[in-house]
Amino acid sequence: MQWEASTHATGGNYNRNTGECAICHTSQGYRGLLAGTYDPAATGAVISNPNPPNCYTCHSIHESYTPADLALTFSGAVALNNTTESFDFGKSSQCASCHQGRTLTNFAQINGPDVTITNTRYHVHYGSQANIISGKGLFNIGEGLSNSLHTTMITDQCISCHMTGGTPGQSGGHTFKMRNLSNGLNTAGCVSCHTDAAALTADITALQTQVADLMVELKAKLDAKGISVPGSDNSVAGTYPANVAGAFINYKAVLYDGSHGVHNPTYTVKLLQNSIAVLE
Ligand code: HEC
Ligand code: HEC
Ligand code: HEC
Ligand code: HEC
Ligand code: HEC
Fold first, then answer.
1. 156 CB contacts (<8 Å, ≥6 apart)?
2. Residue among 219, 217, 216, 191 nearest 203 (CA)
């Protein structure tokens, strides 16, 4: 019932069932990559009758018919794209294996050569959460970037907040959602550390407001460079200085991360400030 309410079940994008897309958007593509039976780089690679992420994607269901069948299908450090670094998300490495950036072939290098953008989708894709949380695989420009204690203290990462507590069928558990239908935030996973509920609410509001303001400021600077236009988050084809293209990568990564700073407060704020500074 919880899974049925999740975006994994309802999101619908499992028709992205070819090539590399299928390894994150279809259950069979994900398991096939792990088993070595699906090669996303093969010509004509396709998953027929694709399923969205479901029980069989994440659990070893119906293999031994013992409790071992609940084992997660992926664990250990996740090799992140666009960097040689990896990061261990504990029991959530499985989540991070999909919720991370895709390889961007013309990824900007700090102070590097100009970058030519040919389409409207110059970004590391929509699931940048693993990159924001680990502080790896993005355009890490400038001084003073460091991860929040969320990165080090929350050893099992995603599931500690997204699967803990919640409103039955609306948030928490296998809905993986942080907000219930009346838009209340599920803070069950926060309170072991943030023991003062009123202070937590104030902290969230302050952080998310700061991040929203920085995003507006950064977007205006990016628009002024012509890499985007007001009212749209798409990239504009053209050739740009590397640091402009890199700042755009960071803008999109924070936008699609979806936590408005909560995943990694200190890193997110500094990354945006440094991205703004490089466009002065
Ligand atoms: C097989 C790849 C895969 C795995 C593993 C995975 N996800 Fe997802 N997740 C997706 C995709 C793809 C979507 C978007 C579905 C769509 O839009 O059709 C998604 C959507 C979500 C959403 C909703 C986002 C939104 O914009 O509404 C949340 C929250 C989420 N996942 C959390 C998790 C957590 C937590 C885990 C680990 C327990 C996890 N995911 C594991 C691929 C995965
Ligand atoms: C590394 C894993 C991964 C790969 C590879 C991948 N995606 Fe995704 N994609 C995701 C995740 C995770 C989400 C959901 C992120 C969220 O909602 O926070 C997503 C979201 C999307 C969305 C929904 C965007 C929206 O606005 O809601 C589309 C469309 C999409 N992907 C298309 C594609 C296509 C096309 C490909 C192949 C060219 C592809 N994806 C490859 C992980 C991946
Ligand atoms: C996106 C990945 C994902 C999907 C999809 C998923 N699970 Fe899970 N499931 C997890 C994770 C992560 C845990 C927590 C593991 C832990 O804490 O050790 C879990 C825990 C469980 C547990 C153990 C609960 C407990 O208290 O011990 C059961 C049972 C379970 N899942 C069944 C299912 C079933 C049935 C489905 C399909 C309807 C499903 N899961 C879909 C990731 C997933
Ligand atoms: C510290 C707790 C915490 C951890 C750890 C965490 N999240 Fe989140 N996440 C949140 C909160 C809080 C929000 C929602 C912020 C809001 O709605 O204001 C969120 C938002 C999201 C969203 C956007 C949801 C939407 O509906 O648009 C996705 C997707 C997501 N997280 C995935 C992940 C993944 C994947 C991981 C692990 C790699 C992870 N999160 C780890 C707290 C956490
Ligand atoms: C394992 C402990 C732990 C958990 C769980 C945790 N936090 Fe935190 N959080 C911290 C610590 C410690 C800090 C302050 C230090 C830092 O950010 O480096 C912090 C900082 C923050 C900040 C920034 C506050 C500021 O002063 O800038 C916000 C907002 C926040 N957390 C929200 C959340 C939310 C929402 C959740 C649950 C969804 C959560 N945290 C879960 C330990 C935790």
1. 89, 90, 91, 92
2. 191
Q: What are the phi and psi torsion angles at 100 (to 5°)?
A: -135, 165
- Whether 160 lines ligand 4, by a CB cut-off of 6 Å, is yes
Shortest-distance Cα residue to atom 9 of ligand 1: 8
Farthest CA pair distance, the chain: 61
Which positions ≥6 away from 245 have C-beta within 8 Å?
A: 106, 108, 115, 117, 122, 227
Is ligand 3 within 6 A of the CB of residue 96? no
Indicate the length of the chain as a whole number.
Answer: 280
Residue nearest to atom 29 of ligand 3 (CA): 70
Q: Is the CB of 55 under 6 A from ligand 1?
A: no
| pLDDT (tens place) for every residue of the chain, 280 residues total | 999 999 999 999 999 999 999 999 999 999 999 999 999 999 999 999 999 999 999 999 999 999 999 999 999 999 999 999 999 999 999 999 999 999 999 999 999 999 999 999 999 999 999 999 999 999 999 999 999 999 999 999 999 999 999 999 999 999 999 999 999 999 999 999 999 999 999 999 999 999 999 999 999 999 999 999 999 999 999 999 999 999 999 999 999 999 999 999 999 999 999 999 999 8
Rg from Cα positions in the chain: 19
* 91/26 Cα distance (integer angstroms): 21
52 lines ligand 3 (CB under 6 A): no
225 contacts 235 by C-beta, under 8 angstroms: no
Binding site membership of 15 for ligand 1 (Cβ less than 6 Å): no
Instruction: Provide the CA 75 distance to its chain's centre, in angstroms.
Output: 17
Q: By the 8 A CB rule, do 211 and 242 touch?
A: no
